[in-house]
Amino acid sequence: MILLGCFYYRQWLDFSIVFLSTGLMLVAEMFNTTIEALCDFLEPQENAKIGIIKDIAAAAAGISILVWGVVLSLEAVHVWQGLR
Fold first, then answer.
1. Are 4 and 74 in contact (CB under 8 A)?
2. What percent of the chain has pLDDT over 70?
3. Are 15 and 44 in contact (CB under 8 A)?
4. What average pLDDT does the segment 57-71 reach?
5. Staple partner for 82: which of 4, 9, 21, 40, CB 3.0–4.6 Å?
6. DSSP per residue over 43-82, as a string?
7. Do residues 39 and 82 touch, judged by C-beta distance below 8 A?
8. What is 2-83's CATH topology?
9. Top-confidence residue, 22 or 82
10. Is the pLDDT of residue 36 over 70?
11. Measured distance CA(24)–CA(67) in Å, rounded
């Protein structure tokens, strides 16, 4: 919905920023899933080092979700102000 609002009520730059941040967030999630699956394949037993690697990958994905949420919130405010 926000993406459509940016497309219709704002500039192409706003649309591109939302589109790019969404794509980067999805890529970070895919990397996180890949790293976790690869770690599980290489070391099926419980391993503290593998746990740290998984935690770091999950933190990177979490940071990307946080940035994505901030971008969406800022763009939602801009679209809302454009509707008024």
1. no
2. 87
3. no
4. 95
5. 9
6. --S--HHHHHHHHHHHHHHHHHHHHHHHHHHHHHHHHHHH
7. no
8. Helix Hairpins (1.10.287)
9. 22
10. yes
11. 10
